[in-house]
Amino acid sequence: MTRRLPPFLLLPAVLTVLGVLVPLSYLVLRALGAEPGALREIVFRSRNLVLAGNTLLLGASVLLTTTLVALPLAFLAARTDLRPRRLLTLLGVLPLAVPGYVGAYAFIAAGGAGGAIDTLTGLRVPGPSGFWGALLVLTLFTFPYLFLNLHAALRTQDPALEDAARLLGRTRWQTFWGVTVPHLRPAWLSGSLLIGLHTLGDFSVVSLMRYPTFSAAIYQQYTAAYDRVYSAWLALGLLVLTGAALWLEARFMRGVFLSRVSPATARKPGVVRLGRLRPLAWGFVAALAVLTLVLPLGTMLYWLGLENNPFAWAGLLDALKSALGAAALAALTTTALALPLAVIGSRFTGRWPRVIERAAYLGYATPPLAFALALIFFVLRVVPPLYQTLPLLIIAYTLHFVAEAIGPIRSGLVRATPRLEEAARVLGVSRAGALRRVTLPLLGPGLGVSAAFVFLSVLKELPLTLLLAPIGFETLARNVWSYTEEAQYASAAPYALALAAVGAVLTGLILRRERE
């Protein structure tokens, strides 16, 4: 390990730090730029407390409900004799392919008078709305973040402590709650952080469900009321909540040490036989499959059959081309920027490498609406011609999702021993040449997974696209949102189905690559 960063790694790292911190700093300056009297009126509005309370209530509730869904499903897939396991794993992962606003569209278009369920069966099922509607949709389409972490932890957990608890006379349930669950804390915190950040930053689901939160208020103030100072303060309030979530996760992880003391190889956990609980388990799995896959897909196909506007199909092709082109370009730029950051994080020690790595993750932790607003304020002040251009949109995608691309690359770097680079250096190859000729060929799978992750995330991204995309730049996400907001469910169906289909294909490819 070396502490000195070479220029070819330092330059992209500095650009990333500046790209994330400068717009956020300007957002603070913009928020403080109003008159003192106006600032007091803005800061002490009673509505701010309502928005904060609603946001925190929704975030805490989503964490509870996603745990109630993800933990049983992860246990069934990892520890029980319920088969096939691959089907259970797919059920826990595939909802990631459906963006929250597509799920909200499906539930809204399925319920109520004239909805898909009412028309097909004659049953009048109330359409979801408000807090409970937002909670339902966010739970069903964010629980995979928690499932993936819990499933991996349950599969690799050493059963020695559970065996010891059973030998001491504890029942199976006492062992589960007293031994197994506490050892899932790191996995739960990791997945819960992602869900919490997603819920705090979500504005599409809460807007469609008419549930007021910070994110929904930011969008309304900026696009409808044109009150940019108040929207800046709302964005800062959202950043405070995000910072609190990051602090809590770090606080709860402090002192966690779950590695094995014995150097012996850990045994695989035993298989739990469900017995009489098998019908209950299959009922849970079937209900989850209906809510996350069957109902959304059926609703989209139903409304798709009612769409007879030829212009909608022509617009679908254009939106698909725009979405795929932007996602591909952002995947390339993000992966290229993530590579030097991952090298810094895995090959260098010291204060500055840690600062650079944390700054890269700050862009991902910042809610998209707040980040987009910061970029808008900064660009309009410094480089106005860049506003509402494709380069600005790609920059926003890159800075926001670069942290998502660092993980798979860094995992590959951990497996690629630095001794190969050292050998190349001894043979006279420069540091940059050793990285390019020796290490880079070993990172092919990690680079591919990183690009696929970013491609899928950009394809689903809505807030950055709505606020930063050029005029006339239509994507699948943008059309699903606009048509659903106007209750034109038939017109939204082709875009929602295309988005879900592409997302499912990409999710399957990512899973296959990771298994390989």
UniProtKB/TrEMBL annotation:
Keywords: Cell inner membrane, Cell membrane, Membrane, Transmembrane, Transmembrane helix, Transport. It is a multi-pass membrane protein. Residues 52-247, 320-510 form the ABC transmembrane type-1 domain. The chain crosses the membrane at residues 7-29, 49-75, 87-110, 130-148, 187-209, 229-248, 280-304, 324-349, 361-380, 386-406, 440-459, 492-511. It comes from the Bacteria. Pfam families: BPD_transp_1. The keyword Metal-binding does not apply. InterPro entries: MetI-like, MetI-like_sf. It is found in: Cell inner membrane; Cell membrane. GO terms for biological process: transmembrane transport. GO terms for cellular component: plasma membrane. Belongs to the binding-protein-dependent transport system permease family. This is Iron ABC transporter permease. It comes from Deinococcus radiopugnans ATCC 19172.
